[in-house]
């Protein structure tokens, strides 16, 4: 993953196909564990439909705004610190410690973008 901050409202995130698959796996796991739309939206910050559109757009265009980075951060936070997933590495595709490093990277990006405001 390569991140370039464009300005206070946008960043370019270049994700590999495996990283996009990782985000899809996380989204699918969260949907399974948060089986009601209102709970998903409360904990993640957007609806399932919005999340699906955002994930689909990640492979086409790496330009994201702060709200989209926040969504990605929120799903990583949810699988790392919220819901308990049995066989984490098998379900998500990476060890939990590696997922936490992605979470830290997205947290850092959010803070950098906010600092530029």
Q: Can you characterise this structure?
A:
The protein is mostly helical. The protein has one domain (2-115). It has helices at 17-33, 37-44, 48-58, 66-82, 88-92, 96-115; strands at residues 2-7, 10-14, 63-65. It has a 3-stranded antiparallel β-sheet with strand order 1-2-3. Strand 1 (2-7) and strand 2 (10-14) form a beta hairpin. Helix 4 packs antiparallel against helix 6. The radius of gyration is 13 Å and the shape is globular. The model has no long low-confidence stretch (mean pLDDT 88).
Summarize this entry quickly.
The longest helix has 20 residues, at 96-115. The model has no long low-confidence stretch (mean pLDDT 88). This protein is mainly alpha-helical and 117 residues long.
């Amino acid at each position: 993953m390569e991140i370039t901050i464009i300005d206070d409202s946008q960043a370019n995130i270049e994700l590999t196909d495996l990283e996009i698959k990782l985000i899809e796996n996380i989204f699918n796991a969260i949907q399974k564990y948060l089986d009601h739309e209102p709970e998903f939206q409360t904990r993640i910050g957007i609806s399932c439909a919005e999340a699906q559109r955002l994930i689909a757009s990640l492979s086409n265009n790496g330009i994201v705004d702060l709200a989209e980075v926040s969504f990605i951060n929120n799903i990583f936070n949810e699988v790392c610190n919220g819901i308990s997933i049995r066989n984490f590495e098998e379900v998500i595709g990476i060890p939990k410690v590696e997922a936490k490093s992605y979470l830290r990277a997205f947290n850092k990006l959010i803070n950098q973008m906010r600092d530029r405001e």
